[in-house]
Amino acid sequence: MTAPPRVLTVAGSDSGGGAGIQADLKTMLALGVHGMSVLTAVTAQNSLGVQGAWELPVEAVRAQYRSVVDDIGVQAVKTGMLSSAELVEAVADLLAGTDAPAVVDPVGVSKHGDALLAASALDSVRTKLLPVATVATPNLDEVGQLTGVRVGSEPDMRRAAAAMLEFGPRWVVIKGGHLSGDAVDLLTDGSEEHWLRAPRQDNRHTHGTGCTLASAIASYLAKGHPVPEAVTAAKTYVTGALASGFALGGGIGPVDHGW
Ligand code: PLP
């Protein structure tokens, strides 16, 4: 049997299984690629929030990455929670040395308001990580933190995208899901513009949507789709996963990968 495309996630663990590495691997399994993981941090987490977080040493992150890439190889990489400036810079250096496309989810703060990236790491994200990204997938809070552009309407998303592209990613997806109305995302490389719309889901169980979108984009890229097709297909996947997000624990439940 021929091996499926291989996709690597470099991200944090969510012990509750809804976001982070766990959401990434579930997405990859659902989309028919071989998922691999480089763990950057471990969180004690559930539907109510993050109760604790511990970073891995930078040597452990580098060693996991080398083990995977040097033997198995990757067709696409996704990055998520990177926790500190030191880890952001180490991962950016590793990505600079590969030809595989990199989907960078510049994870800042969880839906519950827990910090997943130190404020002191923002500059490393801007100057080291975003320049090596094929696709960056910030939400509106992350756009605000990284660029200072506050998005209150769809036209603002254009300004936000332009500001993000100045940091150097080839493409950016501005996730406008927190605006009212349809869930609208803007994908652009500065010349092409794709507005991706999906009806708003009336479902509060949205834990893991950002991780899932970025992993789905990486999975479709690994299967050989060009960026606009990969992002469009990934949005369809997330919309389905979100439609069947379910209650678990006493708080915000996860999106569903079995839909
Ligand atoms: N936990 C980890 C390890 C994550 O990587 C992320 C998001 O990237 C989250 C939690 C946040 O998930 P959400 O904001 O969807 O609740």
UniProtKB/TrEMBL annotation:
<keyword id="KW-0418">Kinase</keyword>
<comment type="pathway">
    <text>Cofactor biosynthesis; thiamine diphosphate biosynthesis; 4-amino-2-methyl-5-diphosphomethylpyrimidine from 5-amino-1-(5-phospho-D-ribosyl)imidazole: step 3/3.</text>
</comment>
<dbReference type="InterPro" id="IPR013749">
    <property type="entry name" value="PM/HMP-P_kinase-1"/>
</dbReference>
<feature type="domain" description="Pyridoxamine kinase/Phosphomethylpyrimidine kinase">
    <location>
        <begin position="14"/>
        <end position="256"/>
    </location>
</feature>
<dbReference type="InterPro" id="IPR004399">
    <property type="entry name" value="HMP/HMP-P_kinase_dom"/>
</dbReference>
<dbReference type="InterPro" id="IPR029056">
    <property type="entry name" value="Ribokinase-like"/>
</dbReference>
<keyword id="KW-0784">Thiamine biosynthesis</keyword>
<dbReference type="Pfam" id="PF08543">
    <property type="entry name" value="Phos_pyr_kin"/>
</dbReference>
<dbReference type="GO" id="GO:0008902">
    <property type="term" value="F:hydroxymethylpyrimidine kinase activity"/>
</dbReference>
<comment type="function">
    <text>Catalyzes the phosphorylation of hydroxymethylpyrimidine phosphate (HMP-P) to HMP-PP, and of HMP to HMP-P.</text>
</comment>
<keyword id="KW-0808">Transferase</keyword>
<protein>
    <submittedName>
        <fullName>Bifunctional hydroxymethylpyrimidine kinase/phosphomethylpyrimidine kinase</fullName>
        <ecNumber>2.7.1.49</ecNumber>
        <ecNumber>2.7.4.7</ecNumber>
    </submittedName>
</protein>
<dbReference type="GO" id="GO:0008972">
    <property type="term" value="F:phosphomethylpyrimidine kinase activity"/>
</dbReference>
